[in-house]
Structure formats: C-alpha cells, structure tokens
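Exercise 7. Given the encoded structure of a 260-residue chain, write a plausible sequence.
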C-alpha cells in the first residue's frame, strides 16, 4: 500500500498510510499576528479531516488553537509532554471539541489503527512565546505504517540526528521559514539537504517555506520566501542525488517513492 502526502502550506501536511490520515501542525488562517498568507489558497475543509493530528512544538504557527478547533470532535491530538499545561488555549479547544490529547516525550510511541507514531528529538526552542519561561521540548515524529515517514517539525541539524530518527523512507523537511532571516534551530535549503544526506530516505518533500510572510516586508530578501524549494532541489542533486525530491505546490499531493 503506497503512502500519499499532501502539502497544505507551511508545516501543515496530510500523510495517508495504511488507511490512517495523519495531519501535522495544522494552520488554516489567512493571517497570524504580523504574518499573512502570501501563496496558496486556504486549505479546504477536507484538510482538517484526520484520524491523528501531530503538533511538533508550541510556537503559534505550529500549535494554533483556532485551527485545531476545526477538527472533528473526538479527534486524537499528539503534542509534546507538558503542552497542555503550558498553553491555556489548547486546554480550552480540547475541552470544547472533545479532542483526545496524548502527550509524548522523545522516544515514546502511540498507535492509531495500523500506524505507529514515535516522537523524536528536535533542535528547536519549543517555548510558547512570549508566555513565561516554561519550556516544552520541540519534537519531530516518525509515522510508521506501510512506510516510515519523518516529519521534522522545526529543527536544526544536530549530532546523532540520523540515529535519533532511524531509518525512514520519506522525509518531510523544513527548508525555510516565515521571515527574511532564519534564527538558530532552523534548516535552510542547504542544511535541509545535509539532513537528507544523513537520513538517506528514498524521498524528501520540502515544507515550511513560501506560505507566510511578514506584512510590509515584501521587498526584504524576497528570495528567502520564493527560492527555498528550488534551492533545496539544487542542493540535493549535489549532496544526496539518490534521494527523490518531490517539490509540491500548495494543496498538491504525491505518492512518494518508498523503495529503491
């Protein structure tokens, strides 16, 4: 049974594997604070249909309570351990929509039907800014069914990354951000290609770029908005030529190569 990947924009992806729909970091709004959706239509209602939803960390563009409120009542939500205590909005929407929350630490697993999800470390500041000093570590996830799909969330390169993630056939890798400069704990196109070379999946899908951009900053380093996907493909041809890159448009789907 093949895996199907749909990119809705930013870090929001649907992975369909073994009859299970897994949704990552749902963000379904035109505007978030100073950010505006600049490319791609808003995801349709079907994007919120999921058997399991994964939240990688607490930043507002990854854990967005108003987007979580679009999930069907009873949907299972996986978050980093400590997230429920740290984010009052998460508690409120979970109660209102009867969302079933599972909290995981890196190395812990949960199941949904024929799919197992394993939380893995991420090198990223997982705090809910600007709300206090409470720190909840950011995570990535490996979704294992017919194939193993790694969703990195937000992360920088880190020592032991390949060992922590383990073998995977598909890697969903962030290759940019939402502003003209990437801070510590992020991957740009070059570092994402290096991560792919370490992980050695069959296929890689670049995400987390070319969707949101700060209002009024259209002319500030615009290549950081437009170019990361293409640059990732170019870098991959040099450092990981054996990995197939599937560069999707917003709302597009692919059945990625999962075997060599």
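Solution.
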């Amino acid at each position: 049974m093949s895996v199907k990947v749909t990119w809705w924009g930013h870090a929001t992806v649907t992975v369909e594997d073994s009859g299970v729909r897994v949704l990552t970091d749902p963000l379904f709004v035109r505007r978030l604070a100073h950010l505006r959706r600049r490319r791609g239509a808003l995801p349709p209602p079907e994007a919120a249909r999921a058997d399991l939803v994964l939240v990688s960390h607490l930043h507002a563009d990854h854990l967005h309570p108003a987007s979580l409120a679009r999930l069907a009542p009873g949907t299972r939500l996986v978050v980093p351990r400590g997230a429920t205590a740290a984010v009052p909005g998460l508690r409120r929407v979970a109660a209102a929509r009867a969302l079933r929350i599972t909290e995981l630490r890196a190395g812990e697993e949960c199941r949904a039907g024929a799919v197992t999800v394993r939380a893995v470390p991420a090198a990223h500041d997982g705090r809910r800014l600007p709300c206090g000093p409470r720190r909840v570590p950011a995570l990535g996830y490996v979704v294992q069914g017919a194939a193993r799909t790694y969703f990195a969330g937000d992360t920088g390169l880190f020592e032991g990354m390949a060992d922590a993630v383990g073998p995977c056939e598909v890697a969903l890798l962030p290759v940019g951000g939402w502003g003209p400069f990437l801070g510590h704990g992020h991957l740009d196109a070059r570092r994402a290609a290096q991560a792919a070379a370490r992980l050695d999946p069959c296929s890689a899908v670049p995400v987390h770029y070319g969707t949101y951009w700060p209002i009024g900053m259209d002319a500030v380093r615009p290549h950081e908005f437009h170019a990361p996907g293409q640059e990732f493909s170019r870098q991959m041809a040099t450092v990981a030529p054996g990995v197939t890159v599937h560069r999707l448009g917003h709302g597009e789907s692919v059945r990625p190569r999962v075997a060599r």
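Remark. The radius of gyration is 17 Å. Students should compare their own answers with the one above.
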